[in-house]
Design brief:
Largest sheet: 11 strands, antiparallel
Structural class: mainly beta
Oligomer: single chain
Distance between the termini: 90 Å
Number of helices: 5
Order of helices and strands: HEEHEEEEEEEEEEEEEHHEEEEEEEEH
Number of strands: 23
Mean pLDDT: 91
Shape: elongated
Length: 429
């Protein structure tokens, strides 16, 4: 197909008197990409644009554009409740002669716009409290690059939006100090359930330094909705062991350069709203020594917190790094109440009791740095899974610095005290 042939094929879908373009998916089954887009994204599987004041003339380039208004997306509620978007629909023909369609749909702001103003299935989620000062939907039948979106827009729906530092983001406004840090973008899917699946990630970042931590973070915002399968027991049907539930989240994301490798990416939820929050990252990052972590919190010596009775570690791996934050009144950066490092230590065998009664093979250290007002203080504990006399797997924690041992069974596990004691006595004799 040529662009001229596509123009002729579009004429029956135009109503110049009413100022509308109506393209049902059932009428364009031969337009493979366009048909797939209409089915996956649009209400009634139909592109309906109203308020067209000027229809496109015969094309002189590979583009046929219609400008008007539309709500676009499926909406089971009252039609008047859905936001009307300013729409530009551009048809083109690719190199293979296949018709393609790109729709740009802009939300009317101000006032602020919310995801639930255009997308059904979100009215019962916390995302109704998240507001945007600008929003652009991009609907495409083929991968495309546009100036308003970083990277390639994949079929079928993407959103580029600017977050308002209101609602759940009001307290974190100082961390979103630049326009780039409030820019989000990502895909939207309407085919996975009643609730749309959304994954908006930050486009830019605000450079932020938090007192007490010698590192620079790049803060941005995230908004998401998705489905999660969780364990579930149905008393009426024992074959049911799980259920899938809708989940919605809003949060902050912060990247931090650390050692060799990609930056660490921290997450901080902003729902439910609280002045106390935890910025954390789960990682597997090898450490050359404790000094790498000491540099992040000036004034601490983490190696000194490990009692001398603990065998020297052959290697260290950072597993988790988190900061406990408090957001004060006013437009102020949060204060750091504490920093927690979770580090796996390869210590080799560590016999706590003789004759293989109790030996630890893999030890972890959860160290907390507190800021009581003067010099930072380090506290924490060691932990490990171990087998006692080859009979029972348990979890041990050892307090620092006194190495007081606490052991417990795994949840739901039971043990015979009589057989355990008999095995211990046999080892001792």
């Amino acid at each position: 197909m040529t662009i001229e042939q596509l123009y002729a094929a579009l004429q029956p879908f135009q109503d110049t008197a009413a100022g509308t373009l109506t393209v049902p998916a059932s009428a364009v089954t031969d337009w493979t990409g366009v048909h797939a887009l209409l089915v996956a994204a649009l209400a009634e599987q139909t592109l309906l644009i109203t308020g067209i004041t000027e229809f496109p003339p015969p094309p002189t380039s590979n583009a046929i554009s219609y400008l008007g208004s539309a709500t676009l997306f499926p909406w089971p509620d009252q039609p008047g409740d859905q936001t009307v978007l300013a729409v530009t629909a551009t048809f083109s023909v690719d190199q293979a002669g296949e018709p393609q369609l790109l729709i740009r749909a802009t939300a009317p702001t101000p006032p602020a716009w919310r995801l639930s103003d255009s997308l059904a299935g979100l009215s019962d989620t916390d995302l109704t409290t998240v507001e945007f000062t600008a929003a652009l939907f991009l609907l495409t039948s083929t991968p495309v690059i546009v100036s308003d979106y970083a990277g390639t827009v994949q079929p079928f729906i993407a959103l580029a939006a600017e977050l308002a530092a209101t609602g759940p983001y009001a307290l974190s406004q100082p961390l979103l100090a630049t326009a780039g840090s409030r820019q989000l973008q990502g895909p939207v899917s309407l085919t996975e359930g009643e609730m749309p699946v959304i994954a908006l990630e930050p486009v830019g970042a605000a450079p932020i330094t938090l007192a007490g931590v010698d590192a620079r973070f790049g803060f941005g915002a995230t908004v998401a909705s998705y489905y999660q399968t969780v364990p579930y027991y149905d008393p009426d049907d024992p074959d049911v062991t799980s259920e899938t539930i809708p989940v919605s989240t809003a949060g902050l994301q912060a990247s931090m350069a650390f050692g060799v490798g990609p930056p660490l990416v921290f997450e901080l939820p902003v729902l439910p709203v609280s002045r106390f929050a935890t910025l954390s990252v789960t990682a597997t990052r090898p450490l050359a020594s404790w000094a790498e972590l000491d540099q992040l919190v000036p004034g601490v010596d983490l190696a000194a917190a490990i009692p001398p009775e603990v065998p020297a570690a052959n290697s260290l791996v950072l597993q988790q790094f988190s900061l406990s934050l408090y957001f004060p009144d006013g437009n102020q950066l949060p204060t750091v109440n504490s920093v927690v490092f979770d580090v796996a230590m390869q210590t080799g065998d560590w016999p706590l009791l003789p004759n293989d009664i109790l030996t630890l093979q893999a030890v972890g250290a959860a160290l907390t740095v507190l800021f009581p007002g003067g010099l930072p203080q380090v506290t924490g504990y060691l932990y490990s899974d171990f087998t006692i006399v080859d009979e029972l797997v348990m979890t041990a924690t050892l307090g620092i610095p006194r190495l007081a041992l606490t052991a417990e069974l795994s949840p739901g596990e039971t043990a015979s005290v009589e057989s355990l004691m008999a095995a211990v006595m046999q080892k001792l004799t």
